[in-house]
Amino acid sequence: MNKWSGWLGLTLALVLVLPACSKGETKTAEAKFNKDEKVKLKILYFNEQAFYSLYGNVFQAKYPNITFDVVSSMGNLEGKDPVKEFDKLVEVNKPDIIMMSQAQYEKFSADGKLYALDSVIQQDKFDLENMVPGVIELLKNKGGSKLYGLSPSFTTKALFYNKDLFDKQGIPYPKDKMSWEEVLQLAKRFPTTGTDETRIYGLAQSMFMQNPFDLVQTIAQSKTWSLLDAEGKNLTISTPEWKNLFEQVVAGYQSKSISQPGNAAATAGGVVSSSKDDGKTRLTIDENSNLFLAGRAAMMIDNSFLLNQMDMMKNMKKDAKPINWGVVTEPVDPANPDVSGSFAISQIFGINAQSAHIGAAWEFIKYVHSDEMAKIRSKSSPELISRSAYASDKQGRSLEAFYKLKPNSDAAAQLYPKGFRAAFSKITLEETKAAIAKTKSLADALAAIKDKGQKALTEANISGEKEQEGNVMGGGIQQIFIN
After folding, report:
1. Does a structural domain hold residue 477?
2. Is residue 210 part of a domain?
3. CB neighbour list of residue 428: distance below 8 Å, 6 or more residues apart
4. CATH number of the domain that 360 lies in?
5. Would residue 422 count as lying in a domain?
6. Per-residue pLDDT tens digits of the chain, which is 483 residues long
């Protein structure tokens, strides 16, 4: 009896082990790359021009036997249900390499549509140690503890401050990991005398903000408050916490310690596009649309693109006085002082699990995330590089503030009923401005936002279609080109 039990145990062990080895060997074989073999890789990316400008040209110079067929997502996702349309793009075009947003990566990982990179990373001893830990942790978290993709960059915000304005008023500089309440109180310490054209503001709005209610939502996001309930059927802004936050922000606008956002859409936060006779689009700076660049704001919370705006200002306006700036981490929730409210990955490269060219696809992804490529991109990319070695400084100042906080791994990209965001933005713009101007009481304005917003949400839910906040295809601020 014991003899047969022993043979049975050994047989079962072999049955379990051998297929596992075969499967592992097959995957390894699939991922082998022959640089002499000619391969055409199909890649789903934002658009063809952006792909070749950022990655394709430099990669093909190194690997001339690999060519690309770029499937552009531009125009295919905007205004549509991003989940359905992205699925359709992948199903119809069958790309080898897929560039995804964070939400798309999470869904495709769960659906088994991506090739797990863990084995090839180990096989090639690919260096993950020198990549920003937060990026890798977030990708693993959204991939169910496995890596189904990599991202060469990320975005997050920090608090910029004008040292000269602080020195003039004898006010201590901001510090890392301040709460939003501390930042709003700090902004109040600056004098609010003067006209709207000459006044110094304690806190200016981030670029692209057009709605004064955006600041309320930004602060709420740092506290991980959701605008909608889990089912997406009801607004959550009737709580005492939302009410207190709304009152705080409106009071800041009324006291002039916080600047109201202007028409940033027309000037892209200080960057103006202009065309000349040759048909090329160029970017110019209008510092008056960005109070921080104009030296009229003590603080601004913005992403790393503000640094590129400063460089552009210096290059385009030789007589402009440079801002003597410093930077600390963005404001945080005191309950989670190490967590960023704005950390996001806008473009994630993954391999289609059905690809016939896994080896070549991995070679491309490996190069995109290599030290060599990071060095090239660090000189021009407005986004933050995922390789830590290139996080050192900009204009002689440390960028450590952008790398100190970790992402909120529990946060998910919010999907809204199609059409709701535009309707809600219009409602909040009107009602918040009325509260600031005191033509409506704070209570009445917030009640109107809740009632009108709930009606808009209910109507938007009828179609059953969804739309995603932010960029649905990644790329973000990288897609700005200067010809």
Report:
1. no
2. no
3. 211, 213, 449, 453
4. 3.40.190.10
5. no
6. 444 444 334 333 433 333 433 333 335 556 688 888 999 999 999 999 999 999 999 999 999 999 999 999 887 666 567 778 889 999 999 999 999 998 899 999 999 999 999 999 999 999 999 999 999 999 999 999 999 999 999 999 999 999 999 999 999 999 999 999 999 999 999 999 988 888 999 999 887 788 999 999 999 999 999 999 989 999 999 999 999 999 999 999 999 999 998 744 334 444 544 444 555 555 555 656 689 999 999 999 999 889 888 888 777 776 778 899 999 999 999 999 999 999 999 899 999 999 999 999 999 999 999 999 998 888 777 789 999 887 766 666 788 999 999 998 777 667 789 899 999 999 999 999 999 999 999 999 999 999 999 999 999 999 888 876 654 334 444 443 333
Write out the E strands in 324-418: 325-329, 348-351, 384-385, 393-394, 397-398, 415-417
Task: Give the count of domains, the chain.
Answer: 1
Domain that holds residue 104: 22-155+344-394
CA dist list (Å): 196 to 181, 221, 422, 438: 24, 29, 28, 18
